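Need a sequence for this fold. Nothing fancy.
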């Protein structure tokens, strides 16, 4: 299947971190793959798999995670339309974590051969993928700091800021409102908090007039104070200035 409109999220995502020419955008729009629709909370790629294709998120949201032997889950990152969360599978043979849909998702599985050919034909697109992989590492570093050194209130505020800025950069916010269908359990697994602590922290953020949270959407009521609460500096996202 020709990517056509489905590739637009990829164009928007890469344009948020690198200037693309019209020709490069056209190439990205023509990327072919197998498009699948999956329900919420379904594995897209599993730990231990040896994938021969990469997974591009076209619609919906996804997350990376691992489980302990006791079945406790740690979420490492959230992914939005335009992300290719398993791009590393081009060079790492075995998946060392799992990738799951968070909401209902439309994804395109693009063969490694297609991606490698794309990079050979269009080196600047390869540069964009490399830059995206480096930014991925920067996000992991910021999440480690968030988990290890911030209190629950700051952790939550930081995550809400990150999601807002990333979605805004690709045109997926509506003013100060953005969609993100997280359960309290998923908040907890991303932030290292119990569901009770998550509930209390969200109540505190709402009570302080920083956000409202309803029907799978977040409204940012006071951006400056939310950013201050999370010590949020978007530098680690390495967005183009006109996309930030």
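Here you go.
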């Amino acid at each position: 299947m020709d990517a056509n409109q489905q590739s637009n999220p990829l164009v928007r995502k890469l344009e948020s971190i690198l200037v693309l020419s019209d020709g490069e955008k056209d190439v990205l729009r023509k990327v072919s793959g197998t498009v699948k629709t999956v329900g919420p909370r379904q594995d897209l790629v599993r730990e231990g798999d040896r994938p021969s294709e990469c997974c591009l998120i076209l619609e919906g949201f996804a997350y990376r995670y691992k489980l302990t032997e006791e079945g406790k889950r740690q979420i490492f990152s959230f992914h939005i339309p335009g992300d290719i969360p398993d791009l590393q599978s081009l060079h790492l043979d075995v998946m060392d974590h799992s990738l799951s849909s968070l909401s209902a998702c439309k994804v395109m599985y693009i063969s490694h051969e297609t991606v490698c050919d794309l990079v050979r034909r269009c080196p600047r697109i390869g540069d964009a993928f490399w830059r995206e992989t480096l930014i991925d590492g920067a996000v992991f570093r910021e999440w480690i700091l968030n988990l290890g050194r911030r209190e629950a209130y700051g952790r939550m505020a930081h995550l809400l800021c990150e999601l807002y800025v990333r979605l805004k950069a690709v045109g997926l916010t509506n003013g100060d409102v953005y969609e993100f269908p997280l359960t309290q359990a998923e908040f907890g697994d991303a932030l290292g908090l119990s569901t009770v602590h998550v509930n209390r922290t969200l109540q505190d953020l709402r009570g302080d007039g920083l956000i409202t949270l309803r029907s799978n959407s977040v409204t940012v009521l006071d951006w400056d104070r939310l950013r201050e609460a999370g010590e949020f500096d978007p530098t680690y996202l390495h967005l183009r200035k006109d996309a930030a």
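For context: Confidence is low (pLDDT under 50) at residues 1-7.
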